[in-house]
């Protein structure tokens, strides 16, 4: 059944509201002749506005919950058992370059456990959502991770380190281990959508290091509710604390992990 709970409705409505602003700004950015600096400022203003919209909508519906957002950091509420974990714009570099692949990410953590998640792609109008124990959906369609069992048929997503970020040499070793064994490796530029695509069975797996809780929190629940398996990229449990992830299905996860370990 794909009927959303009141909680999921709050999260979905907030995401759609913030998305209206982002869509408008994305359209204008493509039209505007802005300098490199001007474009970057324009995008960070769009990002801040989206986070403000999300903060207000979520605080109005659930007063007192704490809020961890990429732009404002942690704002402790009176209710410390509930924390929203929010990335108002995941895929900023895509947005800045007018590449239509970005998302709004909202997760709710209750006593340390992610219990609800929304990842919204405003360009395709795909709203991925999950609630703990109730399955994973895109709009009103139930999602399952891919059934592929062999590396040679797998398409994996990853994140390539970039200027000033990540461990470049380590990544190249991992890519070398993976690329020669799989059907393809993709770098689309939004960790949130990479995880949503794993939940949807489009990607057979996703690994990346040096991510932040707001990149990952929603996708963790999407993938696990879609029947997937998640650890960090070293095979250990702590994903949010380490910022590293390997998400796949039950069959491929150990095979991918084994190859990643060869690189380390
Ligand atoms: C980024 C995206 C990207 C990942 C980066 C993240 P942002 O988030 O998720 O795919 O490779 O490490 O920082 O900056 O666009 O919110
Ligand atoms: Ca992000
Ligand atoms: Ca962001």
Features:
eight-stranded mixed sheet; binds calcium ion; 2 domains; five-stranded mixed sheet; 39% helix; 7 helices; Fructose-1,6-Bisphosphatase, Chain A, domain 1; alpha+beta
User: Which architecture name of the largest domain does CATH use?
Assistant: 2-Layer Sandwich
Topology as H/E string? HHEEEHEEEEEEHEHEHEEH
Mean pLDDT: 96
DSSP strand content? 25-35%
Uncertain residue ranges? none
General shape? globular
Please summarize the sheet with the most strands. 8 strands, mixed
Which ligands accompany this protein?
D-MYO-inositol-1-phosphate, calcium ion
Radius of gyration: 18 Å
Distance between the termini: 43 Å
Strand order of the largest sheet: 2-1-3-4-5-6-7-8
Structural class: alpha+beta
CATH fold-level assignment of the largest domain: Fructose-1,6-Bisphosphatase, Chain A, domain 1
CATH homologous superfamily of the largest domain, by name? Answer: Fructose-1,6-Bisphosphatase, subunit A, domain 1
- Approximately how much helix is present in the residues? 25-40%
Q: Tell me the total number of β-strands.
A: 13
**What number of structural domains do the residues give?**
2
Total helical elements: 7
| The first-level CATH class name of the largest domain | Alpha Beta
């Amino acid at each position: 059944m794909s009927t959303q709970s009141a909680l999921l409705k709050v999260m979905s409505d907030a995401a759609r509201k913030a998305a209206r602003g982002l869509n408008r700004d994305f359209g204008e950015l493509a039209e505007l002749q802005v300098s490199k600096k001007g474009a970057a400022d324009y995008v960070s203003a769009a990002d801040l506005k989206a986070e403000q919209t999300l903060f207000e909508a979520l605080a109005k519906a659930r007063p007192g919950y704490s809020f961890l957002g990429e732009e404002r950091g942690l704002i402790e509420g009176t209710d410390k058992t509930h924390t929203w974990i929010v990335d108002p714009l995941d895929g900023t570099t895509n947005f800045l370059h007018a590449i239509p692949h970005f998302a709004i990410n909202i997760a709710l953590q209750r006593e340390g456990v992610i219990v609800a998640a929304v990842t919204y792609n405003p360009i395709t109008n795909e709203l991925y959502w999950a609630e703990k124990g109730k399955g994973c959906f895109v709009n009103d369609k139930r999602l399952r991770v891919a059934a592929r069992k062999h590396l040679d048929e797998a398409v994996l997503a990853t994140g390539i380190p970039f200027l000033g970020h990540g461990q470049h040499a380590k990544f190249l070793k991992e890519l070398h281990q993976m690329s020669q064994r799989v059907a393809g490796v993709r770098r689309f530029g939004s960790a949130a959508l990479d995880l949503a695509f794993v939940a949807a069975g489009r990607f057979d797996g996703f690994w990346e290091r040096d991510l932040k809780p707001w990149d990952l929190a929603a996708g963790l629940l999407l993938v696990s509710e879609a029947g997937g398996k998640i650890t960090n990229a070293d095979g250990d449990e702590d994903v949010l604390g380490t910022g590293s992830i390997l998400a796949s299905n039950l069959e491929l996860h150990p095979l991918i992990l084994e190859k990643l370990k060869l690189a380390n």
